[in-house]
Amino acid sequence: xxxxxxxxxxxxxxxxxxxxxxxxxxxxxxxxxxxxxxxxxxxxxxxxxxxxxxxxxxxxxxxxxxxxxxxxxxxxxxxxxxxxxxxxxxxxxxxxxxxxxxxxxxxxxxxxxxxxxxxxxxxxxxxxxxxxxxxxxxxxxxxxxxxxxxxxxxxxxxxxxxxxxxxxxxxxxxxxxxxxxxxxxxxxxxxxxxxxxxxxxxxxxxxxxxxxxxxxxxxxxxxxxxxxxxxxxxxxxxxxxxxxxxxxxxxxxxxxxxxxxxxxxxxxxxxxxxxxxxxxxxxxxxxxxxxxxxxxxxxxxxxxxxxxxxxxxxxxxxxxxxxxxxxxxxxxxxxxxxxxxxxxxxxxxxxxxxxxxxxxxxxxxxxxxxxxxxxxxxxxxxxxxxxxxxxxxxxxxxxxxxxxxxxxxxxxxxxxxxxxxxxxxxxxxxxxxxxxxxxxxxxxxxxxxxxxxxxxxxxxxxxxxxxxxxxxxxxxxxxxxxxxxxxxxxxxxxxxxxxxxxxxxxxxxxxxxxxxxxxxxxxxxxxxxxxxxxxxxxxxxxxxxxxxxxxxxxxxxxxxxxxxxxxxxxxxxxxxxxxxxxxxxxxxxxxxxxxxxxxxxxxxxxxxxxxxxxxxxxxxxxxxxxxxxxxxxxxxxxxxxxxxxxxxxxxxxxxxxxxxxxxxxxxxxxxxxxxxxxxxxxxxxxxxxxxxxxxxxxxxxxxxxxxxxxxxxxxxxxxxxxxxxxxxxxxxxxxxxxxxxxxxxxxxxxxxxxxxxxxxxxxxxxxxxxxxxxxxxxxxxxxxxxxxxxxxxxxxxxxxxxxxxxxxxxxxxxxxxxxxxxxxxxxxxxxxxxxxxxxxxxxxxxxxx
Length: 849
Hints:
By secondary structure, the protein is α+β, with helices and mostly antiparallel strands.
C-alpha cells in the first residue's frame, strides 16, 4: 500500500438506536429559508469582529469588511456635513437661500476667510475621496481577482487569467453577481471623481466704486458740489452717496491718506473686493468755481484698472506722480449767437452739432480755430457769465478778435456732461495728483455649498457600502490578489496543465504554437466575442506529454531555450501600451492646442503669462455657455475623469513592468515570496505591487497633475455690487475660467510624465528569465519544484535550473501516475522552476521543459 501524501480523513458517525429515529424527523429539522437568510446575516455580522485570527483562505473578507467600515464612516461624515451645512444655509440668518437649491450660501464676508475655508474643506474632501476610492478599489480587486479554483478551471480549458491586475479576461469568468457589484462600484466612483470636490466652492465679489478729485486745502465747511440738481444727480450716481455725507467721512477718519502710487496699485485690480470710493487730491489752482472734479475723457472706463489698461493715465514704473484728466459734475448751458460768413449770425447751444461742420465748410481757417478755442474753453473751465465775457473780449485768445467780441450768449440752464456728449473733450484739463484718500469697505466674498452634489455623493457612498457588504458575503477562498499569492499556491500544489513548459512566457500564451485560447466576454447570460486567435502549428522538436488533469488526454509540450534578455516595455502587452500612449498623446496634444488658443486670445506669450496662475480674469472667462451651476461644474471637472483614467492605465502599466522586474530578481537572488497574507518567512506585498520608491512619486505626480488641471480650468462665480451696495446682476457673471500659465505648466508636466514612463520601459532586465508578468499559466509553468521540496512557498525561493541528481517531477508519483510514460528520452532536457533548493544558472544553448 503506497504512502498517501494527502490523506483524506473520514469521520464515521455511529448508527442511532431506533428510539432516536423519531427525534430525527421532527418538523423543526426541516430547513427554513428565512432562518437560512438570518443565519447568513448573523454569520456576516459576526465577521465584523475584525480582531482575532481570520479563517485561512478567507482573509480577504476581513479586508473587505474593514473597507466597509471605512466607507460607512465616511458616509456618516458626509451626512453630518450635509445636515450641518443645510442648517446653516437655511436658518433664519440666510433669508436669501430660501427657494435656492442648486447652491446655498454658507458665509459672506472676508475673502481670505472664505478662501481659507474652501481650501481647508477641499483638503478634507480630497482626503475622504482618496480613502473612499482606495477602499472601493480594494473591494473591486477582491471581486475581480481569480481564486485557485478559477485558475484550475480556466487552465483545464486551455485558458488563462490575469493575476494581480484587472482585465476583461477576468471579467469574463466572473459570475453575474460579482459583475453587477463590480460595475456598481465602478459607476459610483465616477461622480466622486468628477463632482465631490465641487460640493463646496467660494465666490468672489467685486465692488464698484466712485472716483473724484478734491483740492488739497478743502475745508470742513466747504461744499463739494454746486447747489444744482444736475451736480447732485451726477455725484450720487458716480459715488453712491450724498456729497455732504462724503465730506463728513473725509474729515472723520473714514478715508485713509496714502500716496498716489500706493492707492493706484491697490485699486489697479480687475476685481476689487475691499475698497470703496477713491479720492484723488490735487492743488487748488486746478479747481475753477468748484470744490471737486470727476474724472473725464476715459471713454466710459469706470475703474482704475480699466483706466490703466486703456493707457488713459500716465504712471511711470518708478515714479509716484500721476496725472489724470478731469471734468465738472455739471455744465452751464449757453446759447451762442456766432457770426458766420456763410449764413450770418447763427445760434448754437454750447457749440454742439452743426458748429463743427459749419466751421469746416466755411473754409476760413481763423474762424475754425476760434470756434475750436471757444469750445475747448467752455469744456475745460465751465466759466461763469463774467468769466466767459472777459475771455471773449481778450484779443490775445483769438485769431480774429473782432469776431470774438461780436459773439453774444445767454445762459439757458444747467446740464450734466452726459447731456452734451458731442462736445470736443480735447480741452480737458490735465490735473497732477499729489496723493489719495482711500476707503476700505466690508468684503462680500461668499462660501457656497451645493445640496444636489452633496446628495449625489451620499447616494454613491451608500451604494458603495451596500456593494461592499454584499461582497463580504461572497463565499470565495484562496484569492490571487497578487502574483506572490499565485506563486505560493502553485508551489504548494503544482498545476499539471502547465507541466513540461517551464520556460513559458506571457507572449507565448497569446501567440505561437503554445498559445491558449481566451474566454469570450460574458455579461450575464449574453456572450460576447472571443479575444484570442487560434494557435499555430507546433514546431518540429516536440514530445508527447500530458498537460491536463485528465490522465487519458495527451497533448503537445515543447522544449525550448532561454529567451534573450528583454526590456521592461516588453512585459506589457502592446494593447495596454497603445491605450496608455493614446491617452497620453491625446491629453498632451489637447493641452498644446488649448495653450496655443489661450495665448492667441491675448497679445502674446508674455501677456498670457502675466495674467497669473489660476487667476480669474474677464479675458479668459468662458461665458454664455450655460448659467446652470451643475452644468458648469461638470464642464470644469470633466478633464479630471480623463486624468483619472490615465492614472489608472499608467498605474497598471507600471505595475506590469515592476512585477516583471521583481520576477526577474528571483533568477538572481533567493528571496521570500511577497503575498497578501504572509505565512512562514513570506513578506507582505506592496500596495498594488508597486514599491514605495515608485508608488509615492506616482501618487505625487498624479496629485500634482490633478491640482494643476483644477487650476487650468475652473468654475467661477462673480457677484458685482454697484456703488450703492446693491447686487448688480448685469455685471455679475458665472462661468468657467482658464489659466494660460497653468495650462502651460500642466502641458510640460504631462510631457515629463510620459518621458519618465517611456524611459522606464527602455530599461533592460538583468536575466534571461521568461516574462510571466500577470499571466496565470506562465506563473504556474514556473512552479514545478523537485519532488520532496515541501513547504517551498513559506521559504526563500529562487528560480533556476534544477541540478542533475535532484528528484524531479518526471518520475512516477501518485499525483502523476502517467509520468513514467514520458520519461524516455528526456534526460537530455533540463528543467527550471522556483524552488527552495539550490539551483544553477540556466544555459543559453540548452533545451528545457
